[in-house]
Amino acid sequence: MADTITRTRLRRLAELRPERGRVLSVFYNLDPGEFATAAARATELNSVMTAAAHRIEAEDGLDHEERQALRADVERVREALGDTGLPANGTRGLAVFACGPADLLEVVRLPIPVESRVVLDTHPCVDPLLRPGAGERWTVLLVNRRSARIFTGGVEALEETDRITDDVHQQHDQGGWSQANYQRSVEQEKRHHVAGVLDVLFTRFKQRSFHHLVVGAPQELVAEVESGLHPYLRERLAGRVTVDVENASTDDVRTAATAAADEHRAGVERAALDRMAQGVGRGERGASGIAQVQAALEQARVEILLLADDFDAPERDALVEQALTQSAQVLVVSHHGDLAVHGGVGAVLRF
Questions:
Q1: DSSP labels for 231-242?
Q2: pTM value?
Q3: What is the pLDDT of residues 238-254, one digit of tens each?
Q4: 14 DSSP β-pair partners
Q5: By the 8 A CB rule, do 169 and 162 touch?
Q6: Which of 3, 25, 56, 143 could disulfide-pair with 148, CB 3.0 to 4.6 Å?
Q7: Cβ count within 10 A of residue 74
Q8: Sheet (strand 329-333) strand order
Q9: 148 to each of 46, 186, 197, 260, 323, how far by Cα in Å?
Q10: 266-349 in CATH: which number?
Q11: pLDDT tens for each residue of 202-228
Q12: What CATH architecture does domain 7-130 belong to?
């Protein structure tokens, strides 16, 4: 059971072309806003698997062995999901890929909801895994002079993992830690407190990495906190939040972090779109429209494939798969409308 969507993993799935059989790709929406109880989630899982079984029986073009293999895949998926006790905290969607002839059975927990659906094809359907936030783990650090809290998970499903107050690290459900003795000086105590908190944060990162970090701290402390981060963490800084460090509820933190994440993604999109526009204008490292992007992909020149979030041309799947197999980044643009004049697709080129 894996729950991290890396570029390497996406590339491996996109490249998979079984010599025999079809790939069953199943997606489940487990948004707690719609499926708040275990019974509701179990009903949704059963409903999607029933739809998968019906789809297999109704699918044209399958020979006897392919149909039998897919029937077996349905049962393998049912068994796998039954054994995992899903969904775990923070799981708002699932993606499952199965193909018996290729020895494939892969379940991916998603921190964002996805549309429940079933896909049968000669390869895994990876498009839903490209949605903004689908593969991202976020961490929020809240810290003041005497207290600190750490939240980790999908940005809309963050859970508190650590609470640190003065010289006591209160263990939650993922380990424990004890700070060094404080010095008498208030400033020394503050510095030791911040340093100890950042040690805890880095320990968390080493135990399980995350993609983005958001910091919430009083104005007079935030610069010291950010400058004291380990370089690995500093390069993951993605914004700040303003919440009550000691009293904010988990929902308050999630709301603030979601806004910070949205602003961060908008900035990432803006930077990529500007690079593409500059490259297109110079006739160099930019491609505009399906034809130019396809040509650039054929030459393995694409660094970032840019797709409008409503781009649904028949070529989409092929463009995505080819980009992933070349280790290009695929960026779905949802905050800016620049791609409309480019037919919904463009690219930043390597050369």
A1: HHHHTTEEEE--
A2: 0.82
A3: 999 999 999 999 999 99
A4: none
A5: yes
A6: 143
A7: 19
A8: 286-288, 345-349, 302-308, 329-333
A9: 42, 17, 7, 19, 42
A10: 3.30.1330.30
A11: 999 999 899 999 999 999 999 999 999
A12: 2-Layer Sandwich (3.30)
